[in-house]
Known about the structure:
alpha/beta, single chain, Rossmann fold, about 190 residues, five-stranded parallel beta sheet
Amino acid sequence: MSRNILILNGSPHTHGNTAALCDAFTDGAAAAGHKVSRFDLQTMNIHGCLGCMKGGKDPEHPCVQKDDMTLIYPAYRSADIVVLASPMYYWGFSSQLKAAFDRLFAVAELDPGYRNPVRDAVLLMAAEGNTPDNRKPVLDYYHALLSQLGWKDLGTVLAGGVLHSGDILKGNGHAALEEARRLGSAIL
């Protein structure tokens, strides 16, 4: 069964380590027959959430702010799977990913109980650190986020030891690239 996959790439480098993870995941998912929509958030005009609680009145444009999130909302509404892709910044997501994800709350505002649409999720992340202690805070946050949303984790790929843009491609390529490709192709 073909699934609709939405990738939110929160890296400020459109051809960096996180983008390479997105490319590998997309290659695997597309080969398995899935439809992938990807948004490179750094190239988009997306403002932070205002916390105004005034969204949710128009299903086509759920947020009161009119910026490039209007491009993401239709893909989010039709997605079966949301891929959160980001470099690790201070043991969390980049501000680009956080801003876009926060703005998805406007879709929850369409529901009287502020329930988010239930999705499956994947985390793709590049990081300088490469130890379990380094990964723990971001994984704890990711799993807590999914728990609160009622989303199912389909897998995580964390590429450690990649500080500079392009490090993931050096040599024969980081093992995480093949891991991302396999994860994409294993989506059912």
